[in-house]
Specification:
Blueprint: E1 4-5, E2 23-24, H1 28-66, H2 78-107, H3 116-127, H4 142-184
Antiparallel strand pairs: 1-2
Helix pairs in contact: 1-2, 1-4, 2-3, 2-4
Length: about 180
C-alpha cells in the first residue's frame, strides 16, 4: 500500500519527532483518486437525473389517471397508486444499480468482477448499503463503491419521501370524502 508514506526519524526517546508526520504520496495515486472521484460524481449526477425524470413522470401519470381536481387520489384507486409507486421506484433503483454495475465492468480489472451478474449483485449490495463483503474491489476502485453507497442512501431517502407523500395524499382524500359524506347526510 503506497497511498501513505511514513517518515520516521529515531529520536532519543524513541518517539515521533515533531516533523515526522504521515504524508500522502502525491502523483499517480492522487490522480487515480481524483479520476475515480470524478467518475463517481458523474454517476451520481446521472442517477439523480434518472430518478428525477422517473419520479416526475410517475407523478404526472398518477395525477392524470388517479387524482381528482384537488390532487387527492380518487376513491377505489388507492391500491393502484401505492402499488404503482412502489413498482416505479423499484424499477428506477434497479436501473440505477445496473448503470453502476456497467461502470464497474468497464473500469475494474476482470479479476474483481467476473461477470455482469456478479457486477449487478455487487452493485445491489453496495447501493443498498447491505455490504456483505463477499465481493470487494481492489484498492483504487474502492472509492467508487463508497460513492455508490452514499448515492443509494440519498436516492432511497428520496424514494421514501415520495412514497410518504403519496400515502399522505391518499389519506387526505379519504378524510375529505368522509367529511363530504358526513355533511351531505
Amino acid at each position: 500500500m503506497t497511498a501513505i508514506r511514513l517518515h520516521h526519524r529515531v529520536a532519543s526517546s524513541n518517539s515521533w519527532a515533531q516533523n515526522d508526520r504521515p504524508s500522502l504520496a502525491w502523483g499517480y495515486e492522487k490522480n487515480k483518486m481524483i479520476k475515480f472521484a470524478l467518475i463517481g460524481a458523474l454517476l451520481v449526477v446521472i442517477t439523480v437525473i434518472i430518478h428525477a425524470i422517473g419520479t416526475a413522470g410517475w407523478l404526472r401519470v398518477m395525477t392524470r389517471a388517479y387524482a381528482d381536481e384537488e390532487g387527492t387520489v380518487r376513491p377505489g384507486k388507492t391500491l393502484h397508486v401505492l402499488i404503482g409507486t412502489v413498482v416505479v421506484l423499484l424499477v428506477l433503483h434497479t436501473l440505477e444499480i445496473i448503470m453502476w454495475a456497467n461502470a464497474y465492468l468497464r473500469l475494474v480489472p476482470a479479476g474483481d468482477l467476473a461477470s455482469f451478474e456478479e457486477a449487478v449483485y455487487f452493485s445491489f449490495v453496495t447501493f443498498t448499503t447491505l455490504g456483505y463483503g463477499d465481493i470487494t474491489l481492489t484498492e483504487p476502485f474502492r472509492l467508487l463503491s463508497g460513492i455508490e453507497a452514499m448515492n443509494g442512501i440519498m436516492l432511497a431517502g428520496w424514494s421514501t419521501a415520495m412514497l410518504f407523500a403519496v400515502v399522505q395524499r391518499t389519506w387526505q382524500g379519504m378524510g375529505q370524502r368522509r367529511k363530504t359524506s358526513a355533511s351531505n347526510e
